[in-house]
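URGENT: need a sanity check before tomorrow's submission.

F., can you look over the Glucosamine-6-phosphate deaminase record below? I want to be sure the sequence and structure line up before it goes out.
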Amino acid sequence: MSEAGTRMSAEIAEQPAVFDAVLARRAELAEVAELAAAHRPRFALLAARGSSDHAALYAKYLIEVLLELPTGLVSPSTTTLYGAQPDLTGALYVTVSQSGGSPDLVEATKAARGRGALTVAVTNTPGSALSAVAEHTVAIGAGEELAVAATKTYTATLLTLYLLVDAARGGSGEHAAGLGELAASTLADTAAGVAAAVERYREIDRVVTTGRGYSSASAAEAALKLAETSYLGARSYSGADLLHGPVAAVDESTGVVAVTSRGRGGEAMRDVLAAVHERGADVLAVGSAAEDMPASRRIVLPDTAEEVAPILEILPLQRLALELALARGGDPDQPRGLSKVTRTR
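Structure tokens as predicted:
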């Protein structure tokens, strides 16, 4: 039997090479993006579950900001449980699923195609049931992932979605160039900061994660990782929503992980963190703007364009989840009650 956390640790370390592999396939991804753009969709819909749902949230920001196309996150159960049949003529329907095996996503995608949508599957399993029902399939290409907690498949999905949206707007992928090298330096340079955060948070039971804009996805994914590996009571809130009530539950016993990269989203977090910091919460700021934020401790990341920052932001947070689980006596490779593929309807 392997040591606890071995698989998750190895897959976190693989991500720089995975990024390079995804970037090498940019032309292939651009072909699908051009086909989708040629249909001139009126709006976009994104269907996903779990970590893939957080990747879809990132894509929602990308599509709405970079393509200025109205975009929504789908509730598959409106189709699978309630039998709703909306007219999806002119819709771009993108289903994001690492496994491509969840029955509700397969059924909803098939139904969307039958109701007039252009369907695209973004999956790490090209031969999956999802690929069979979608009109186009985009392979994430992260390789087999053995740990239950998604790490390399999540970030490879983010990068794949970015390259698709960037190509649809006629971009060259320039903001993503070199992300493999930046990922390697990020993992190396943040190790000490992660270790310090583990020492601080190993005894707490409640964590709030927060971010704005593109980084909302990073905050949501960080909360999921901390909950599923360390069994923490972790909740994610938009920085805007945090001050509309949930801040009342934040005090000296609450760990607050704030994702703050340079750009409009990160800047919008400044007043939020000042208010939270004043309540005595232990604030860990993570991102390229972390050193300028009101916080108790910081993990500073390299500067990038704001639209690709989430691809790097999550790396030290994955490592935090891994090492915190180990420090608390758990095995993040075998979280209780979880399996690699979750089948819902």
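My own read: The domain at 183-327 is CATH 3.40.50.10490 (Rossmann fold). The mean pLDDT is 93. If you see anything odd, call me.
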